[in-house]
Design brief:
This protein is of the alpha/beta class. The protein contains 15 helices and 13 strands. The chain has an eight-stranded parallel barrel, surrounded by five helices. It has a three-stranded mixed β-sheet with strand order 6-8-9. A two-stranded antiparallel ribbon has the order 12-13. The structure holds beta-D-fucopyranose.
């Protein structure tokens, strides 16, 4: 696929460590990880991959891989330690050096501005339940663009707002650990409002492209469970795609959202984006809820497929189905797509045939979608390095590069070499 962009992805809290350095403020993930019982084995991101100190070595790994782009995230609490107010020059300085290091190696930096590490000070005011957080986000986005915008041309606003809403605020399995059930809905609206305001701030600062990264899943169901599946699709996919691409929320969610909606919000949210980032891991099988709970659906295990070390089913065709489905649903309103995350956790060793097969099959699925007419322009592997996998701590390894967390030694896996060959084929075609 000529002109296709290959990349690798990471996120700040998952790799940086150095949580007390150079004026970084606390984030909700520091608080959550240090709360006993929240993260497997009591792991925290205090050190993680120590990328804050080893970034040059990691840029060299990216260069060896031959990727055209690197998707990383900027830690809001490094840039605006208290969430609002004073900007921390040293925090911006770190990303400044990283961007220069990438550009020297011919790698395009693609920063995400929010990959879940909200400044704790903002959480103390209500976090994303509070509308004000959206405005603080846009201000912070403007500060980052002001410093990096002369060299960074593509920014991503949010990473997977659905996962942050669901796991962070509805179920409480991620930071900030609130279990509000349907009470988490305003978190969707405020993140989307923050996204729209940030698109405007970034464009005003000269950004050429702004993307939003959504986690999308094809929703499967038996015939008799279609209604439940439509509701799940509404919460997981349409709640985050419809307002951005069409300027409207799914009807059935309006009663929960309307109290938080103000005139003009949807116009801000639908400010045109230049691409949709899609993170794909697996399809979701939905059935009708049997217990008469809050929600009319339940999630059932997808059976009959191999599973990753995490237990996630491996369904490459689901990615083709997802992409062609987006094309069908949104038609001309769908911007170009980049797969901003896809990958798997696997055994610790460096002979990771499982991951090579996984990546090969999923890249094939992307190619099939492109052949079916979907404008998909790139693919970023999750992840460059083994890292802090949220509530799983260091127990799940997603890296093309193995990390020994005792010594911080990096060792490229077979999948690194395989992906390097894919990148090389494209740049020579
Ligand atoms: C995604 C997250 C990313 C990583 C992968 C495995 O939901 O965006 O940070 O944890 O899952």
């Amino acid at each position: 696929m000529a002109g296709f962009l290959y990349g690798a992805s990471t996120a700040s809290y998952q790799i940086e460590g150095a949580v007390h350095e150079d004026g970084r403020g606390p984030s909700i993930w520091d608080t959550f990880a240090h709360t006993p019982g929240r993260v497997r084995n009591g792991d925290t991101g205090d050190v993680a991959c120590d990328h804050y100190h080893r970034w040059a070595e990691d840029v060299a790994l990216l260069a060896g891989l031959g990727v055209g782009a690197y998707r990383f995230s900027v830690a809001w609490p490094r840039v605006v330690p208290a969430g609002s107010g004073a900007v921390n020059d040293k925090g911006l300085g770190f990303y400044d050096r990283l961007v220069d290091g990438l550009l020297e190696r011919g790698i395009e930096p693609v920063p995400t501005l929010f990959h879940w590490d909200l400044p704790q000070a903002l959480e103390d005011e209500g976090g994303w339940l509070d509308r004000e957080t959206a405005y603080r986000f846009a201000e912070y986005a403007g500060h980052v663009a002001g410093r990096l915008g002369d060299r960074v041309h593509r920014f991503i606003t949010l990473n997977e707002p659905v996962v942050h809403m669901a796991q962070g605020y509805a179920w409480g399995t991620h930071a900030p650990g609130r279990a509000l059930g349907l009470g988490a809905l305003p978190v969707a609206h405020h993140q989307l409002l923050g996204h729209g305001l940030a698109v405007q701030a970034l464009k005003a600062a000269g950004a050429r492209e702004v993307w939003l990264t959504n986690n999308c899943t094809p929703v499967w169901s038996a015939d008799e469970d279609r209604a439940a599946a439509a509701v799940y699709d509404g919460f997981h996919n349409r709640l985050f795609n419809d307002p951005v691409l069409l300027g409207s929320y799914p009807e059935f969610l309006l009663p929960g959202l309307e109290p938080h909606l103000r005139d003009g919000d949807l116009d801000i949210i639908r400010t045109p984006i230049d691409a949709l980032g899609v993170n794909y891991y697996n399809p979701t099988l939905v059935g009708t809820a049997s217990d008469g709970g809050d929600l009319p659906f339940e999630i059932r295990p997808v059976e009959g497929y191999p599973t990753t070390a995490f237990g996630w089913p491996v369904v490459p065709d689901g990615l083709t189905e997802l992409l062609t489905g987006l094309q069908e649903t949104y038609g001309d309103a769908l911007p170009p797509i980049y797969i901003t995350e896809n990958g798997c956790s696997a055994e610790e060793g460096v002979a990771d045939t499982f991951r090579v097969d996984y990546l090969q099959a999923h890249l094939g699925a992307v190619r099939a979608a492109a052949e079916a007419g979907v404008d998909v322009r790139g693919y970023f592997v999750w992840s460059l390095l083994d890292n802090f996998e949220w509530a799983e701590g260091y127990a799940q390894r997603f890296g093309l590069v193995h990390v020994d967390f005792d010594t911080q030694e990096r060792t490229p896996r077979d999948s690194y070499r395989w992906f390097r060959d894919q990148c090389a084929k494209t740049s020579s075609s």
